[in-house]
Amino acid sequence: MVTVMVSEGSIIEQTCKETPDFNLCVSLLNSDPRGSSADTSGLALILIDKIKGLTTKTLNEINGLYKKRPELKRALDECSRRYKTILNADVPEAIEAISKGVPKFGEDGVIDAGVEASVCEGGFKGKSPLTSLTKSMQKISNVTRAIVRMLL
Amino acid sequence: MASNEALLPVTSRQDLLSESRSDQIPETRRRRPIKVHLAVYSGLLLIALYVALIVTHDGSTSQHGAKDETSTESRARLAGVSEKSNDRVSRLSDDRKVEAFPWNNTMLSWQRTAFHFQPEKNWMNDPNGPLFYKGWYHFFYQYNPNAAVWGDIVWGHAVSKDLIHWLYLPIAMVPDQWYDANGVWTGSATFLDDGSIVMLYTGSTDKFVQVQNLAYPDDPSDPLLLKWAKFSGNPVLVPPPGIGAKDFRDPTTAWKTSTGKWRITIGSKINRTGISLIYDTTDFKTYEKHDTLLHQVPNTGMWECVDFYPVSKTQVNGLDTSVNGPDVKHVIKASMDDTRIDHYAIGTYYDSNGTWVPDNPSIDVGISTALRYDYGKFYASKTFYDQNKGRRILWGWIGESDSEAADVQKGWSSVQGIPRTVVLDTRTRKNLVQWPVEEIKSLRLSSNKFDMTIGPGTVVPVDVGSATQLDIEAEFEIKTEDLELFFDDDSVEADKKFSCETSGGSTARGALGPFGFSVLADESLSEQTPVYFYVTKGKHSKLKTVFCTDTSRSTMANDVVKPIYGSFVPVLKGEKLTMRILVDHSIVEGFAQGGRTCITSRVYPTKAIYGATKLFLFNNAIDATVTASFKVWQMNSAFIHPYSPDDLSVPSRT
User: Fold this and answer.
1) Rounded to whole angstroms, how far apart are CA atoms A22 and A10?
2) For residue B208, what is the domain's CATH number?
């Protein structure tokens, strides 16, 4: 359990209260220098950046696994495809949509990031080497979605 | 008589497990003698938890349940078909058990439709500026030229002589000005008195502000309207004080007021109240904003793609947007950003002050129980007056229900619904009626006619050959030995106690339903999409009918959304139950009672594709025998292709 110190009533705190994971939300937003002065759109964009970062990290992990776990090639191929979708389709769509004020397409992109992560995970049929990364993506996706919905 | 072999599975214990269904009508449920005697008295939640424990430890529970059904027929549970609880329409990644599904190109390429409008590739969303001009129907649409997801939006363009056979034209408008640099978004066309066209559309400026811009055909003598000119004085409207810079979009077609000025409305929001702003103009370049709103409804959120038009109270033809008078009602429609649902309401328009009042405020625009054009996947819809045939035509954007990875892999996303005529239901006077345009009949090839009587709990294959491109028109009669039952219900209010979503889908059996067709099914019914009626007994032996599409078992794939859609449908005295279904690969459009209730669904089977696709008729009722008289047509492709000069010499098909 992480103890988070935030000033009472800060925008980050108020916003994160309305998400499924207050602590995660606050720690992610506080870790970005833009967080303290961002409006709701800005906070959503910060989190989408985090999704992008996590995606890149996961793709690197996937690439490394090809050598270490060659028997998982098929599942890794599917995961590679899924995470590339997050990077190349979901993230740009969400950034454009939120910047331009049509957040529903941002919501679609963010939801899909969670779906793609889940689909990748499912391909290992219970023996995934990526579980903790998958869970991170799902959690961040849910928090981000909650914030994007505030813009609708 | 009907085959008993491949029966639809019965109600599962998922009803007990699902908390959201605790308010269902219980009389049609059968209890299973699971070891819960102690828990029965401890509340529903405990029952759910206890049963959940048993289920996870004892895989044979379902078989006990099945054997204890008192029906004489076998209820063989088809292996491998999951009975998951209903997906919500919007996906939540951690709510579903998702396994990677190995989509291959064969499965994905099957999904492309044959006679619904879709661009050759990439992403499409809202219909824009539909109109008829110099012999051609024009269709514009939000389009991403670069990807299969939303972004980089331009106006795509296509023309047709008959609203069915479309020809792709070059892109009509691109973001090449500061006032639409970040997007050429949705807009509508207006015909001026001299027959010339003006187009109002939303631009996202270089600073991300939503503004309204004026455009018009560069060359009015070009029937194809290939080139568009933007007014040098754009934008003509910017967000007014009190309205957010990003809450101001989708201007409507203008209508003439009694003073001779033109009037438009634009959706927006103030806090959580959805509103429709109203402006008058004489030249489409300068506008006067009214201090009052056309309408507003609290707690409905942002109103996108507002549409406003008259409908005749007495006749079944369409009306020009400017028509007004005692024989006319006015419809306000808005697309709800929050829920992705299009709602409409019928009411009275007061031209003198530009306001509108709903006939029934309890189902006002945007309220969750308000009427919808379509109870499935259908958004950002827009009507236009077709002066060629005197009709009001409705376009609707039908997005995908699959993952974006699949969209990227297959290279496209979204289709448009088949254009529908829209009129007031002159019998109920409380709802609209929609129907696919007549011209779609030109796609009908061979047909088969059937008359079948099927008893309770039966599924019958309907042999029509190929079953991926079909037009089905059917009439149903229910026979039961029960007390005399009759339809006589003109109420349009949604019956909260019973709905398609909460009724357990097509497998939940009641006395008088469900019954209908299973489309896009494979031989073993491991994948199927039932489109059906579910009739229940209401007060005074009156029957209430819901019309549903159940996509929960439409595919083995788990990375798609599989909701159960539908709604109550008014069935009046003397009416038979009628249904029409258009099947076109990954889209199914269902119409009940001549279009009183419509449902569009996206379906992505993995097995029920190409030659393996079958059609079934089913009657899952417990007490009723159903007689179905129906005709099934094979539907030709519309062969939508890029325009070429040769297309001018082809005789138009009507």
Assistant:
1) 13
2) 2.115.10.20
- Report the alpha-carbon distance of residue B348 to residue B369 in Å, rounded: 20
Q: From the centroid of its chain, how far is CA B125?
A: 14
Number of structural domains in chain B: 2
Residue in chain B nearest A148 by alpha carbon:
B338
> With contacts defined as CB-CB under 8 Å, which chain A residues touch B124?
none
Sign of the four-CA dihedral B40, B46, B50, B51: positive
pLDDT value at position B482?
56
Contact B403 A100 (CB under 8 A): no
Spatial contact of B345 and B413, defined as CB atoms under 8 Å apart:
no
Query: In angstroms, how far is CA B134 from the centroid of its own chain?
Result: 30
Instruction: Tell me which chain A residues have a C-beta less than 8 angstroms from the C-beta of B245.
Output: 101
What number of C-beta contacts closer than 8 Å exist between A and B? 117
Mind telling me how many Å the CA of B477 is from chain A's nearest CA? Answer: 42
| CB contact A68 to B (< 8 Å) | no
Identify the residue with better confidence: B469 or B501.
B469
Q: What is the pLDDT of residues B283-297, one digit of tens each?
A: 999 999 999 999 999
Enter the pTM of the model.
0.87
User: Does any domain span residue B283?
Assistant: yes
Quote the CA–CA distance of B641 and B119 in Å, as a whole number.
9
Q: Is-cis flag, bond preceding B358, omega within 30?
A: no
Active site residues of B: 126
Shortest distance between the Cα of A149 and any Cα of chain B, in A, equals 8
Do the beta carbons of residue B2 and residue B455 sit within 8 Å? yes
**How does the average pLDDT of chain B come out, rounded?**
86
Q: Is residue B629 part of a domain?
A: yes
- The CATH number that applies at residue A95 is 1.20.140.40
Helical residues (DSSP H) of B111-248, grouped into ranges: none
Domain that holds residue B591: 446-635
Is residue B518 in some structural domain? yes
Domain holding A68, by residue range, is 48-150
Q: Are residues B462 and B604 in the same domain?
A: yes
Are B294 and B381 in the same domain? Answer: yes
Nearest CA in chain A to B98: A119
Q: Do B559 and A93 touch (CB under 8 A)?
A: no
Interface of B with A in 568-627 (CB under 8 A): none
Q: Which residues of chain A have a CB within 8 Å of the CB of B405?
A: 81-82, 85, 89, 112, 116, 119
CB contact under 8 A, B404 and A101: no
- The residue behind tokens 């599904």 is B101
Q: Which of B204, B404, B560 is most worth mutating to test chain A (most A CB atoms within 10 A of its CB)?
A: B404
**Among partner residues A96, A115, A152, which is closest to B151 by beta-carbon distance?**
A96
Query: How far off is chain A from B202, nearest CA to CA, in Å?
Result: 12
Question: Concatenated DSSP letters for B456-473?
Answer: TTEEEEE--S--SEEEEE
Quote the pLDDT of residue A6: 52
Check which CATH number belongs to the domain holding B550 and give it.
Answer: 2.60.120.560
What is residue A126's predicted lDDT score, i.e. its pLDDT? 87
B251 with B388, same domain: the answer is yes
A112 to chain B, any CB pair closer than 8 A? The answer is yes
- CB neighbour burial string for A52-72, b if at least 16 within 10 angstroms, e if fewer: bebbeebbebbeebeeeeeeb
The interface predicted TM-score (ipTM) is: 0.92
CA B295, CA B277: separation in Å to the nearest integer? 8
Q: d(Cα B99, Cα B559) in Å, to the nearest integer?
A: 7
Q: Is residue A34 part of a domain?
A: no
Query: By C-alpha distance, which of A92, A93, A136, A130 is closest to A114?
Result: A136
Whether A127 is covered by a domain: the verdict is: yes
- Taking the Cβ of residue A142 and every Cβ of chain B, the question of whether any pair is shorter than 8 Å is answered with yes
What 3-state DSSP class applies to B510?
strand
Q: pLDDT tens digits, residue range B311-345?
A: 999 999 999 999 999 999 999 999 999 999 999 99
